[in-house]
AMPO Aminopeptidase (Melanocharis versteri), 755 residues
Amino acid sequence: METQLDPMKDDLPLMANTSYMLVKHYVLDLDVDFKSKVIEGSIVLFFETGSRYRKTSSAGKECCQSQFDETRKMRASEPCHIPMINASTCSSKTEYNDFAVSGKEEEATSDENSNHSNNEQASEISSSKDCCDIENHGNKDFLLVLDCCDLSVLKVEEVDVAAVSGIEKFTRSAKLTGVSKELENLRNQIVHELVTLPADRWKEQRYYFTHCSQAPGCGELLFSTGTWSLEIRKSGIQTPADFPHAIRIWYKTKPEGRSVTWTTDQSGRPCVYTMGSPINNRALFPCQEPPIALSTWQASVRTAAGFVVLMSGENSAEPVQLREGIFSWYYYVSMPMPASTFTIAVGCWQEVKQQSFKQTASIETNTEFSLPSSQTDFRWHEEICGHVEYPCRFQNPAARLQAVIPYRVFAPWCLMESCEEYLLQLIPQCLSAAYATLGTHPFSRLDVLIVPSNFSSLGMASPHIIFLSQSVLPGGSHLCGTRLCHEIAHAWFGLAIGARDWTEEWISEGFATFLEDVFWARAQQLSHDEIKGQQELKALLRWRRLRDEVQNSEEELQVLRPKKESTGELSESGASVVKYGLKAEKTFMQVHYLKGYFLLRSLARTIGEVSYLASLRKFVVKFHGQLVLSQDFLSMLLEDIPKQKGSGLTVESIFQNWLDTSGIPKPLLEEGETWKECQLVQQVSGEVTKWIQTNRRIRKSSKKKMKQDEVVFQQLLPDQLVLLLEYLLEEKTLCPRILQCLERAYQLREQDAEV
């Protein structure tokens, strides 16, 4: 598949001009067709005028317009700072439509990946290198830019929200006194009132979003599609404030689209799911990808009987039969999130039911490790949240006491028994351990889905749903538990608290890797010494992995903050890039997980784990529902460190030693050898010596059979086995018989996927 990027660039462009218009809510209405491998339907987007271009008065309008014009002139005369498309490639792949066609003819022309036949329109809406270059059009119409890729856009129209019954209540606000009742302006005022309703009216808000999304269209809009974007305009509309604030886009995905994968599950039945593509969801629906575009959404998805639709919604949807053989599933969220967190999985999934209620009940009521370890958590919760207004669980007394949120497990039929064996029992233990560590669960429920075998990682977390690989199921509870803890940690770090700049991936993955150890230790209820031993063993394994990765990867990909001091900066329009976001090698690298983990581990050792975890809880309470940069966390943490423990730590020194440089961080180089003194590691070293000696004896007496009872090998933990095998792989030669002995001694085929 061609990405049509400049071959010298591996950056992912985020094209949406969020500074001009910011999407606040999406309403998706989709049909999933497994025969054609297409998802088709419409999406309605509700906007607010962007922060830089809000029209507050007639004087403000003139000021806004002049600022907007100045921006246009400046950007038209300067080269774009988003390295994405060369002009010839873009212009040859741009689609145009002025709706001179309809019905089947419209569908046919929209599917062609080339210019439409109307040459006058093709010349009127010309392609541009700059996502906000408007003057190429020969006029001063405002251009709305959305992130979009691998989609066939059929039609774009303005939505007549004023036609909705009962909507007049949103035109009676005192804020509208003296404002012109001209219909176009009235529609935008209605949308403004709707998207700014207070959090305690979220159900009413969702009701009117639903009805507005079903309102008739009131005028088709001009649009063009490029490699990475959908550009929309309305003739004669020159400012974002006057552009329609509710638009409907009719579209369909393409079978080769990169946001979803069409495949079969482990039982051979068809399914489709979002698998965490580097291009996120722009090939599933037109959207604003930049993290700053925090929005809510609701979705109705129709599919054939027998299929189950799972989504990252806060409700547990039940299917509604529309007609013979067709069911509809409805999900929604009331917490604003980036569009990249939207997740869908449609397949013949089976729910794995809990066989032993008593066992789960005893776990849920085990208050010994269910309550947060510091009662000051509850005082922090009484503070006013710092995020945009939404119905927040941190302000809900019942939610604050909920150690285990409701959960369900889904899997293909053939894997249900495997899920019952360990996964079902592990979920409440891991949720309780997470709650004991960080406090309030940010999300109200959890679905866990075992995804098809083509899934490229061990797990992926989205709001209200976790995807797990089938690889975590065999070999006991260890890998399943640690991976589950990692994904649960993302509910706080990666989802409830997101990176303002996606190049700072370590904020999500470093925290989840660090916290997986903390959660898993608590879930197992280990002693202090057991926790220390397991965590030092894990540290050594990760150290070896990081060392190998640093030796075998490009230096530029080893930097956790590749944009350094310009991290978080946006262009005038709000567009930006994810540095190295499309670089193929980056998909397989773990440097953000590992260096991030070692930084957090180093800070925990400096401060002391109890104080450190208390600081993490404080950070969660302060920043949940918000986007952060590295310095937000580091500054708050360093403020809490007593000077005698700080050891001269500063945000700048952490940047220099850990985040802004490639290779192994200097503080870590000194620590690499210390974990070898750990008792669990010493035990492995002793076993390695036995195996090497056995290997030599076998090679010397190859014709003589060795007695099976000559050497007694100890049973090892899964992580110890991994280390043992890594050590043995460093030997120049191992004879085939030693491999057979290894298999028999440790039942390697029955161990987990990491072994």
Residues 1-8, 55-138, 176-181, 356-381 have pLDDT under 50 and may be disordered. The CA atoms of residues 411 and 584 lie 30 Å apart. The longest strand covers residues 21-33.
